[in-house]
Amino acid sequence: MMLLELKQKTWEANQDLVRRGLVLYTFGNASGIDRNENLVVIKPSGVDYDKLRPEHMVVCNMDGKIVEGDLRPSSDLATHLEIYRSFPQIGGVVHTHSKNATAWAQSGRDIPALGTTHADYFHGPVPCTRELTDDEIRGDYVLNTGHAIVERFQGIDPLAVPGVLVAGHAPFAWGRDPIDAAHNAVVLEAVAEMAFMTVLLNPHAGVSQALLDRHYYRKHGAAATYGQR
Amino acid sequence: MMLLELKQKTWEANQDLVRRGLVLYTFGNASGIDRNENLVVIKPSGVDYDKLRPEHMVVCNMDGKIVEGDLRPSSDLATHLEIYRSFPQIGGVVHTHSKNATAWAQSGRDIPALGTTHADYFHGPVPCTRELTDDEIRGDYVLNTGHAIVERFQGIDPLAVPGVLVAGHAPFAWGRDPIDAAHNAVVLEAVAEMAFMTVLLNPHAGVSQALLDRHYYRKHGAAATYGQR
Amino acid sequence: MMLLELKQKTWEANQDLVRRGLVLYTFGNASGIDRNENLVVIKPSGVDYDKLRPEHMVVCNMDGKIVEGDLRPSSDLATHLEIYRSFPQIGGVVHTHSKNATAWAQSGRDIPALGTTHADYFHGPVPCTRELTDDEIRGDYVLNTGHAIVERFQGIDPLAVPGVLVAGHAPFAWGRDPIDAAHNAVVLEAVAEMAFMTVLLNPHAGVSQALLDRHYYRKHGAAATYGQR
Amino acid sequence: MMLLELKQKTWEANQDLVRRGLVLYTFGNASGIDRNENLVVIKPSGVDYDKLRPEHMVVCNMDGKIVEGDLRPSSDLATHLEIYRSFPQIGGVVHTHSKNATAWAQSGRDIPALGTTHADYFHGPVPCTRELTDDEIRGDYVLNTGHAIVERFQGIDPLAVPGVLVAGHAPFAWGRDPIDAAHNAVVLEAVAEMAFMTVLLNPHAGVSQALLDRHYYRKHGAAATYGQR
Questions:
Q1: Would the CB atoms of A108 and B195 count as touching at under 8 Å?
Q2: How would you class D63 by CB atoms within 10 Å of its CB: exposed for 0-12, middle for 13-18, buried for 19 or more?
Q3: What secondary structure letter does DSSP report for A111?
C-alpha cells in the first residue's frame, strides 16, 4: 500500500467534515497531494462516511488515472487536480456543501471581509467565481469548474485566501495538507454564517484594510504572534 | 404477518425522519407500497416514534381499508394513496413538517433551483400547490390534498422532482421505496434551508438550465457518473 | 407531602422544557393546579434544572402564600395565578424565553396563523399583549402581566389558543395539565420559528379560515380524527 | 503553584464557553484576577480546549509579564488587562467569537434592549465600540482595543452592562469572577440571537425604560427578588 500517511490524513480530513456538521450524506470530499510523487489521494465517490476507512482512499496521478484502489474516485477529482496544478503551494483540498457557504455561492456573492474572524484566515473577501457558460457546463464540466476557480484567483495568493465559492454550486477550501484544508472549510462555514447575519443587520458593514492586515499577519508569516510558536 | 420487509423499510424510513431532525413529536409519517399486492404499509396515527416498532405498521388497501393491524393509520393516508395511484413509478411516500420546507410551503412559493445541491435531486423548482378552496377543505380534505399535488405535477416527472410543497401546510416527498423517500425529504429540507438564506442574500439568484441538467443527469439515468456503479 | 402526583407532573414539565431546548439556565418555569384544593404547584425560583427534584416543587394557595416547601416560588408566580383564576378550563401553565417565540414577543407582533402546524394547536393567531404602562410596571408588575394576558384574551377561548406572547418579554403557554402546557410551549416555539422564516419569504402569507377550522377540529372536539382514540 | 482556586475557576469558565457552543477551535479565552496580588490568570494562546488543564493557565502581572507558566498567554491579554485596570469592580473577563454577538459587532450596531431577557442582565443596550483608527490598529492594537472599550463605557456602569461589542471584531463580557463572566457571555449570545430575529420582524421594536429598570433591579441590587436569597 502506497502513501499510508497521506491516506490517513485525507481520511481524517473527511471525518472532520462530518464531525463538524459540514457534510450531509456524501456531499463532500477531501484530498491530499504528495508533491514528490505527484500523486493525489482522494475520497472514493458516494461512499458513506461511517463505512469509510483510510485504506479506501483512492490514489490517482495528475491525469486522473487511478494508480491504486478498487473504488472510483470522487466525481469532483478533476476540480481538485486543477487546483493542485495551479496552486503549487498547497497540499490539501476540500469540497463541501456546507449550508451557509453554499448559500453565499448560490447567491453569486463574494463573502465580504466583515471582521477579525474572517481576517484571521482570509486576507480579503472569499471570492465567488463567475457562472460557467453553457458550453463549459456541457463540456468538461468538472475540469472547467477548476479553471473558473483558478481564473478568479488571478492576482490573489491562494494561501492568503484559502477558499472559494463556486457560483451556483458550493465552496472549495484548501491548505498546507488535507487536515489544514478541512480546518479552513470549517472556518469558512462559520465566517459565512456570521456574514449572512451581518449583512442583514447592516448591508454596508465592512472593516478597514489595516484591520484585515493586522489580524491576518498576527496568525501568518514571520511576525506571527498567535499560538505557542 | 404480511409484508414484513416493507414494514421494516417503512419503519426505518420513519425512524430516519426523527434521527435527521425532520419530525417534532408525531408530526410526520412514511409509507411504502407493494405494487404486486396493491397494498400500502403506513405509520399508525399519533403514536410516539420511540415506541414505534415495525410490527405496528398498518397495512391498507388502495381504498384505505385496514387489511392488517390494530391501530388506526396515519390521518394523511388518503393523500399517500392518491400519490401512489397517480405516480405509478414510486414506491414510498413521506410527509413531514420539517421547518424550512414548511416555511416555504407556508409562504406559498416554489423553492427555486438555486444550485447544484438542489439539482442533484430535483430537476427544476420544488413546486408549491395552489391553495385548496373552502369546498375542498370542508369536503374530503385529505384526498383533495392529494388531488392538488397531482394537479400541480401535470407535465412534471415525479421521479425527476421527488417532492412537493402543499401551500399553507408542509412538504411531501417520495422515492423508489420508503427509505429513498425519507432520503429525499432530508435533502429537501437542506435545500429549503439554503434557498431561504440565498434569496435573502440575492432575491434574483438562479442557475442555468444547463447546470441543472448536468447535475441531475450526473446522478440519474443511463449516463450517471456518481457513486460506485 | 402533599399533591405528589401533581408535583411529579410539574417537575416533568419543567424537565421537558430543558430537554426540548426551550430553557437556558433557569429562564423558565412550569406550574400545575389542583382545582379541588385550589392549590398551585410551581418550580422554585432560580434553581438549576439538573438539581431540581419533584419534592422541590413549591405548593402555594391562590393568594400566593406558600403552603408547603422550603424554597421561594418562581418570581412569575403571580402571573401564573392570574391565568389560573381567569381561565378555569386549564390545569397547567408554562413560561419560557424560547428564542423564536421571544423574538416575536419582543417585536410586539401576533404570530399569524400561517399553516397547518399552527392550526393543529392554535385556532387563530397567537396574540401578543399590549405593552404595560409605566405605572403597571412600577406597581404589581408580575400580577399586571397576568392582567394584560387576560385582557388580550377577551373573546378568545384559552383552550383553542393555548399560548400568548407578552410584549417585550416572552411567551406563556398552558394546557389541561403541566405536561400538556409544556407540549404547547414546544409547539409554540416551532410555530414561531417557521413563522419567522415565512414572513421573510412572503410578508403577505396566510391561510383561510376554512383550513384553520379543518385542522383545529381534526385534533380537538367531538369530531377529532387524529391519533388512537 | 500559585492561585490554584483562580486557575480552577478560569479553566472552568473556558470549558463553559466550549460546552455552551460559544467557541470554535481556539477562538476564545477567559481570565480572572486576584485583586490582592494584582495578578491575572489567563488561558494560554492557541491551545486546544480538550487538552487544556487548570495548571496550564498562565499567571501574569498587570504589565503583561509572565509570573508563572511555560506557555504564552492569550494574544488578547493586553485587552483583558486594560479592562481590569479600568473596571475595578470586576473579577473575570471573557472573549469569544460567538456567532450572533459577533454578527452584531461586525455590523457596528449596539444590541438594543428589546426585552426582559436582555434587561435581566444588561441595563441598557450592549454598546458597540467605534472602529479603531489605522494608527491604533498598526500601533499597540490589543491594548488599543481595550482603550476603545473603556472609552465606550464612559458614563456606563460596567457591572450594569457586563459586556461590549468591539466593532468589526467580536464580544467581550465580564463579571464578578471568571465563571460569572462566562455566564454573561452565554446570555449575551442568546440575547444577540433573539435581537437579530426581532429587528428583522420589527425594525422599530424596543421597550420602555420602566421595564428595563424593573427587570434589572429584580435580579440586581438590594431589592432583588429573584432566586433563593
A1: no
A2: exposed
A3: B
The verdict on ipTM greater than 0.90 is yes
**pLDDT of residue C222 exceeding 70:** no
| DSSP conformational letter for C25 | T
B105 CB neighbours in chain C (<8 A) are 115
Question: Domains of chain C by range and CATH?
Answer: 4-219 (3.40.225.10)
Cβ–Cβ below 8 Å for B134 and C190: no
Which chain B residue lies closest to A192 (C-alpha atoms)? B197
Bridge-partner residues for D30, per DSSP? D94
Distances (CA, A) of D137 to A121, A224, B79, D83, D143: 18, 15, 63, 18, 10
Ramachandran assignment for D3, one of left (phi > 0), alpha (psi -120 to 50 degrees), beta (any other):
left
pLDDT digit string, tens, across residues C163-197: 999 999 999 999 999 999 999 999 999 999 999 99
CA atoms within 13 A on the CB side of A53: 3
**Which residues lie across from A109 on neighbouring strands?**
none
pLDDT tens over chain B, length 229 residues: 899 999 999 999 999 999 999 999 989 999 999 999 999 999 999 888 889 999 999 999 999 999 999 999 999 999 999 999 999 999 999 999 999 999 999 999 999 999 999 999 999 999 999 999 999 999 999 999 999 999 999 999 999 999 999 999 999 999 999 999 999 999 999 999 999 999 999 999 999 999 999 988 877 776 676 666 5
Contact in structure between B40 and B81 (CB atoms under 8 Å) = yes
Instruction: Give the separation between CA C195 and CA A197, rounded to whole angstroms.
Output: 18
**Helix/strand number for chain B, H first, E second:** 8, 7
Report yes or no: A218 at the D interface, CB cutoff 8 Å.
yes
A168 contact B CB<8A: yes
- In 10 A of CB B218, how many CB atoms? 19
Q: Which residues of chain A does D69 touch, with a Cβ-Cβ cutoff of 8 Å?
A: none
* D216 part of the active site: no
Cβ–Cβ < 8 Å for D105, D24: no
Asked if the C-beta of B214 comes within 8 angstroms of chain A's C-beta atoms, the answer is: yes
Show residues of chain C in contact with B131, CB under 8 Å.
207-208, 211
